[in-house]
Amino acid sequence: MKITNLIETLGSFEPDGYPFLSIYLNAEPGNNGRDTFPIWLKSQLSEQGQQYKENEAELERYEKVVEKINQFVDDEVEPAANGIAIFASIGDSQTFEAVQLEVPFKENQFFAYDRPHIFPLARAVQENPRYAVLWADTNKADIYIFGGENRIRTDSNLDDNVENIQNTVTQRSQAGGWSQQRFQRRLENFHLQHAKEVVSELEEIMKKVDVEHLVLCGDETTIMPTLKPQLSKALEEKVIATINMSQYESEEEIYEKTQEIVGIETATLQAAEVERLNDAAKAAAGMGTLGLEDTLRALANGQVQELFVSSDLDSIEYSKREVEKILDEYQPGDDQVPVDTQPIVSLPGQVADQLLIRAISTGAKVSFIKDESLLREAGGVGSILRYNINATASG
Fold first, then answer.
1. I want to staple 244 with a disulfide (CB 3.0 to 4.6 A). Which of 146, 220, 347, 355 is the partner?
2. What are the CA-CA distances from residue 389 to residues 31, 46, 103, 118, 310 (Å)?
3. Is the separation of the CB atoms in 274 and 308 below 8 Å?
4. Which helix (H) or strand (E) holds 193?
5. Where in the chain is the domain with CATH 3.30.420.60?
6. Fold of 267-395
7. pLDDT by position in tens, the chain (length 395)
8. Strands, E assignment, the chain
9. Integer Cα distance of 113 and 101 in angstroms
């Protein structure tokens, strides 16, 4: 299951009166090269278990969930995983989902809400865009796919493998005159054919996966002048940088060099997107919202086309009373529901989850803005609308 689909499934979970555990783990090795999260997790599970000591039935449910969590941590965590998210219901649904990512979560976090807490997972996926790297010289090429939302070691394998293209190595002759010119033409024709094959393979791979950016790596004076003209317009538009790199030591070196470039490109794009948001919100047509309350109401009405949320949960501001009023206003009436299904508005995580859940259910694009200063004026939340109800009504 794709993580976006899992987020949607978790977001639609209806509270059943029992706690739902959402656990986020930073699985990067410590200074001694070993994982540090197991000790922290054991402590958190023990502390949470103290709450059920007076309720034997609930304690039994909890201990079964803890057994599943421990079994997963002991037997199923992949060595390549740097970020782990575990979702487990103590209630009748018996929901248990675990996600392993190559990117780490910033810190270990343990939540026992009445529903799953999806904000950190959604943020990790959106802040880790899938991109392609093409490294090429005159006779060989490697294509890497980094990032994206698939779990580690899924059936796609594209996140774990390198697509390799290699032709016969060409050796330059020392002969001079007319023979040298003929050989040079043959060599150039070989390079051109190689470039065409590389681009064709790249096109095929990028059809299979949704790739946002493309980084080209290679010698600027040899392969790049031949390779770049072969790119289709669609591929050319995805290129965000060209790195002059005649060779490299490892996949990690490629990843490290390109991550910085993708980060800079993302920051530039986000600044432009927030400027567009501000223009839409402040224009006479009122095709945007600034602030959590107005955005939440627009999401409930299905008006939002793009949702912008600060990556820093602590920078999101809102009025608890106003949010509670909006949620009550759009609460579906069902007297048969055994428990209160309203999120707890005193918990910023649950309120932020409501933004994401409503955005996903209405097909709105979600963008997490890393630079919190960009959304400070909006209290950390804003949206661009599909339509303005008031403008439509007055027309």
1. 220
2. 56, 51, 40, 30, 26
3. yes
4. helix 177-208
5. 131-248
6. 60s Ribosomal Protein L30; Chain: A; (3.30.1330)
7. 688 889 999 999 999 989 999 999 999 988 887 889 999 999 999 999 999 999 999 999 999 999 999 999 999 999 889 999 999 999 998 999 999 998 899 999 999 999 999 999 999 988 888 899 999 888 888 998 888 765 543 333 334 445 666 554 444 434 444 555 555 556 667 788 888 988 998 888 888 877 888 999 988 888 899 899 999 999 999 999 998 888 887 888 888 889 888 889 889 999 999 999 999 999 999 999 999 999 999 999 999 999 999 999 999 999 999 999 999 998 765 544 444 578 889 999 999 999 999 999 999 999 999 999 999 999 999 999 999 977 644 44
8. 20-26, 83-89, 96-101, 109-113, 131-136, 140-146, 163-166, 213-218, 239-244, 288-290, 304-310, 365-369, 381-385
9. 23
- Could you tell me the CA-to-CA distances from 171 to 161, 165, 166, 175, 190 in Å, in that order? 29, 18, 15, 12, 12
CA distance 162 to 17: 47
* One-letter amino acid of 260: E
- And the tokens for 160? 């774990």
For 323-384, give the DSSP string. Answer: HHHHHHHTPPP-TT-SS--S--TTSHHHHHHHHHHHHHHTT-EEEEES-GGGGGGGTTEEEE
- Return the CATH class of domain 131-248: alpha beta
Would you say 69 and 88 are in contact if contact means Cβ atoms under 8 Å apart? yes
CATH architecture label of 1-128: 2-Layer Sandwich (3.30)
Start-end ranges of CATH 3.30.1330.30 in the chain? 267-395
What's the pLDDT at 1? Answer: 65
Tokens of 213: 């950016």
List phi, psi (to 5°) of 121.
Answer: -70, -45
Distance separating the N- and C-terminal Cα atoms of the chain: 44
Conformational region of residue 3, where left means phi above 0, alpha means psi within -120 to 50, and beta covers everything else: alpha
The answer to whether residues 277 and 382 touch, using CB atoms and an 8 Å cutoff, is: yes
Residue type at position 352:
A
